[in-house]
């Protein structure tokens, strides 16, 4: 049975593992799913994970769970059976199993806290017996074609194909026929590391978790997405005089949440028929750099909030302040302005390319061979195929976090985990890799 290794044990890994388990229970061939995780299952949704204090509410509906939208297409003539099986891992099933369903309904079906959502995800992972290898992935390379793999360490259900990805941690090496990379990267990065007047996402939430009040006159929050939004929600409770939100957009836009906009996430059937410009416009309107309606309501009620348009080009500490140089483009001309703050919180969010430094040179060569050119964020995004993997790269490399532009806005987030698992599990992992590997060796 082929092995699919997933970097990170979050919602995407759990959704794929759950559907793979149900497929095997139906007697259908499905890969063994092994998550490699440095902290714990659903760690980024828990206090201490660096991305939240666990007390803030989930930005999407909890009904968009690991099986949503329950419209499987991976098993002809048996998809209805698969959907029925997946309902056993639904949000409602979790609430029923833990005695919380009636209360949730009576309270008007509120959005759960991040902590409660992590409990749900762990419940699903435990229920399907998801294999988790504890450790931080330090390198991702291509295993040799020789018989060396026959002596490779095996861990539980782990197998080693003749041509494999090799994921190295400090403790072990995991071999897999395909790899899926998930997660937002490092929450510790900031525009001015080491300065006490500049806080990373992780530093901010660790301070909130310790109930340490922030006291400052002028505070800047960099970022216009949901990561920054949840930080603003917390910051309202602290002793600050003004809060300036810095983002590249002309204003703080509200995320489109009507039926028509939500459909783009749960049913991306017509997405590939749109032009690149239309897709980028849709992403900008519904997903990237926008706040939910709930957060916008809170912003409207607080007169301390300001907005500055621009990208942070430079940051420097001077005269007990952090001076940020903001770059903006108007009419094709670039201009820069400097603004001073007592405290800067870098909530600009994830780096979509955070995983690239993990690749060994062999792996980078293989990716550039498949891409037909240099490895960039743009080339990777444009190369993502229907199965959410990089086209013409074998063994398969699934990058759902970069698939929004080519496949639809729901795949990078929590909005269509059931469709995501269909795409990944429906991929062909049995390609003859000899020709591709030989081409790779010839260009070295």
UniProtKB/TrEMBL annotation:
It catalyses: L-lysine + NADPH + O2 = N(6)-hydroxy-L-lysine + NADP(+) + H2O. GO terms for molecular function: L-lysine 6-monooxygenase (NADPH) activity. InterPro entries: FAD/NAD-bd_sf, Lys/Orn_oxygenase, NAD(P)-bd_dom_sf. Pathway: Siderophore biosynthesis; mycobactin biosynthesis. Keywords: FAD, Flavoprotein, Monooxygenase, NADP, Oxidoreductase. Its cofactor is FAD. Its EC number is 1.14.13.59. It is an enzyme of class 1 (oxidoreductase). Belongs to the lysine N(6)-hydroxylase/L-ornithine N(5)-oxygenase family. This is L-lysine N6-monooxygenase MbtG.
């Amino acid at each position: 049975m082929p092995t699919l290794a997933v970097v990170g044990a979050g919602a995407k890994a759990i959704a794929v593992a759950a559907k793979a388990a149900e497929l095997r229970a139906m007697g259908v061939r499905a890969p063994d799913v092994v998550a490699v995780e440095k902290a714990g299952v659903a760690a980024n949704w828990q206090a201490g994970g660096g991305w939240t204090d666990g007390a803030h509410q989930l930005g999407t509906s909890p009904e968009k769970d690991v099986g949503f939208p329950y419209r499987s297409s991976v098993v002809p003539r048996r998809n209805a059976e698969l959907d029925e099986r997946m309902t056993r891992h639904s949000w409602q099933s979790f609430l029923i199993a833990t005695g919380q369903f009636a209360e949730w309904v009576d309270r008007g079906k509120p959005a759960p806290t991040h902590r409660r959502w992590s409990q749900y995800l762990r419940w699903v992972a435990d229920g399907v017996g998801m294999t988790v290898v504890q450790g931080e992935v330090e390198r991702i390379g291509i295993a040799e074609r020789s018989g060396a793999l026959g002596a490779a360490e095996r861990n539980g259900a782990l197998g080693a194909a003749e041509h494999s990805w090799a994921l190295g941690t400090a403790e072990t090496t995991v071999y897999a026929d395909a790899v899926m990379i998930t997660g937002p990267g490092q929450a510790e990065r900031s525009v001015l590391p080491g300065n006490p007047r500049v806080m990373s996402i992780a530093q901010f939430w660790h301070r909130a978790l310790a109930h340490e009040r922030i006291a400052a006159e002028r505070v800047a929050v960099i970022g216009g997405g949901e990561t920054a939004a949840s930080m603003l929600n917390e910051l309202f409770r602290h002793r600050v005089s003004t809060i300036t939100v810095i983002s590249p957009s002309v204003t703080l836009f509200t995320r489109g949440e009507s039926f028509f906009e939500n459909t783009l996430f749960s049913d991306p059937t017509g997405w590939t028929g749109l032009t690149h410009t239309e897709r980028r416009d849709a992403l900008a309107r519904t997903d990237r750099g926008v706040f939910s309606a709930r957060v916008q309501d809170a912003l409207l009620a607080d007169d301390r909030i300001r907005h500055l348009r621009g990208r942070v080009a430079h940051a420097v500490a001077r005269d007990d302040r952090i001076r940020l140089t903001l770059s903006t483009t108007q009419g094709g001309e670039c201009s820069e302005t400097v603004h001073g703050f007592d405290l800067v919180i870098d909530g600009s969010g994830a780096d979509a390319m955070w995983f690239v430094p993990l690749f060994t040179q062999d792996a980078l060569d293989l990716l550039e061979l498949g891409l037909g050119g240099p490895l960039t964020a743009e080339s990777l995004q444009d190369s993502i195929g229907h199965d959410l993997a990089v086209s013409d790269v074998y063994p398969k490399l699934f990058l759902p976090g970069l698939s929004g532009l080519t496949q639809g806005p729901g795949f990078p987030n929590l909005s269509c985990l059931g469709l995501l698992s269909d795409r990944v599990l429906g991929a062909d992992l049995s390609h003859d890799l000899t020709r591709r590997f030989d081409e790779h060796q010839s260009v070295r």
